[in-house]
Amino acid sequence: MAFLEVKNLHVEVEDKKILNGLTLSVEKGQVAAIMGPNGSGKSTLAYVLAGKDNYRVTEGDVLLDGESILGMAPDERSAKGMFLAFQYPVEVPGVATMTFLRTALNAQRKTRGQDELSTPEFMKLVRDTAGHLGISQDMLRRAVNVGFSGGEKKRNEILQMAVLQPRLAVLDETDSGLDIDALKIVADGVNRLRSPDRSMVVITHYQRLLNYIVPDVVHVLANGRVAKSGGKELALELEANGYAQFQGEAA
Amino acid sequence: MKTDTRAMKTPAEQALSAAFAAARSGLPGKGPLVALREDAFRRFDAAGLPHRRIEEWKYTDLRALMREARPLAEPAKAKGVVPGLSGVEASRIAIVNGRYEPDWSDFKAGDPGITLTELFAFAAERTSYRLGDVPGKDDTAFWLNTAFMTGGIVVRVKKGVSIEKPVHLAHVFASTTAAAMYPRCVVIVEAGASLTLIESFDGPDGIDYQVNSAIELVIGEGASVDHIKIGRDGDAALRVSTLGATVDAKAKYRDFAFTTGGAVVRNQTFVRFVHEGTEASVSGATLIRNRQHVDNTLLIEHAAGGCTSRERFRSVLDDESHGIFQGKIVVEPHAQKTDAKMASHALLLSDEAEADNKPELEIFADDVQCGHGATAGALDSALKFYLMSRGIPDKQAEALLIQAFIGAAIEEIAHEGVREALMQESVEWLDARA
Hints:
The structure holds 2 protein chains of 2 kinds. Chain A contains 10 helices and 12 strands. Chain A is an alpha/beta fold. In chain A, the strands form 3 sheets. In chain A, strands 6-9-10-3-11-12 form a 6-stranded mixed sheet, sandwiched between helices. In chain A, strands 2-1-4-5 form a 4-stranded antiparallel sheet. In chain A, helix 4 (119-132) crosses helix 6 (150-164). In chain A, 42% of the residues are buried. By secondary structure, chain B is an alpha/beta fold. Chain B has 2 domains: 11-275, no CATH class; 380-434, no CATH class. A 10-stranded mixed sheet of chain B has the order 2-1-5-8-10-12-14-16-18-20, with helices on one face. In chain B, strands 3, 4, 6, 7, 9, 11, 13, 15, 17 and 19 form a 10-stranded mixed sheet that branches. In chain B, strand 1 (91-96) and strand 2 form a beta hairpin. Chains A and B meet through helix 2, strand 6, strand 7 and helix 3 of A and helix 6 and helix 7 of B.
């Protein structure tokens, strides 16, 4: 069975139907790219997977490792291995990045019945990863994302992912707002986390990111469902021909 | 035509009149002090308890909230424990049931830079000091304190002396039946001297005791004073505390009010800058629940130019609690180059909680920088989702955000130990919520 199974998912936001019977499987260790035009439901899918409020599932199911997660709170999903890298990471004034990382990691471990990580182990984990991502000690001391540039915020998302070691990482337009150098750093960080035990869903509007994070499969979303699936060459085809071919197919 | 708008006396007002008539001859102090009390009571009696039609008391209607007036608290009989502040080493001065209790205190005399004198002993020996002649002297609750004041302490820090160890005025209600206490303290910090002054209010839960306290602060030229007031009263207590501060040229004054206790609490702070170049901040943090009512009211008078003031308050309101902030900044006509900014933020944790923010600016000078801001709202759901998506459970995510919110106020406190102690008290308040 696939690690993530989205089955015939119908979702409404403020009485507007966004997802219309979306079905999708992501295998263990697979990197799946989700592409699609604006408004096709990409970000909605990301939020529904993470468990954000106000997204009403009217039909269908989402299974993570064979278990339905729709009734779970965001923190329970997280403890089960779900991670969402936000398109727009929020600023959390007054909560130091280090404190935040540590609180999150230990909360997850507690939920899973594991012991807290010791301070030296934790410090080493954060320092090593932060170094790769070009995140300074100063940034780690500062409040989460407060005063960070767009690129720093995205790097901080990848740092969190590296520390929390999820089994499923959903990256929502992680490339948006990044220049080419920042994109390379972020993609490197993601590639370092590729593993046979970790699935990834990489949501993007543009093919560019997929030059750096090469997917195993590409799914095209249109009108709230998967319109086409294929190998990584599908992304290049979209780059050449655009999304127009999918736009007309109304639900 | 003169109309008497004064309503009939409430039972509490009648009880106060009777109490004053009974106590007047026995209250401490001689000569001018007797006249001072009589005059104060006459004024109070004419005005009555402040109520909602008096703008300054709009949200704290004492006539309605103070159903009965408690009898004057007797001096404490047995020696008891004075609650401190965790991890903070301070010279503790106990004011128990409204009277200075040397036996309960642990102030070590010997520092020649600081003197302690019992209030009435001080009034007798230093007749040049005009007791009660401070900003706030026209307030009704202050008159009531003057009429009934039973004791207190006078702290003097001599010119140019830096007192490293904080001085802690610990007010304790130590009776087992409801009563009222009226402490009055005076703190004089002479030119160039510095002092960290902690004031705390503690008392048992379940007893509806009443506190009407007043403190006079006289801050000399170039002096530096940090005043931290901690309200941990019992859950049925009613407390009104008045602070009147006169701040001289180039002084630094930081005032912080931290309130978690009491059923009804009113902190009123009157500050007047009389010479140029003063820097002051008046700030506070309130964490309340159930049906607690806490009112922080300030009047900051810029009577001299070139002074900077910052007023920053934050409150966390749970259940059916009611938090009030009223801040008024007055800039007098000649007080040019005044820089005054005021902000009040309330975090509402329940639909039934209520926050009232009333910032006011009265500016009579034309070359000033003044501003104010006020917000009231629930926890940011986007922030909470972000934290929860990282595995932090609901209540813990809320606690982290509330702690960050209140921490932004507590950061104002210069003394590290006090800052940490109050952060810890906030965490304990949050733990009790979960």
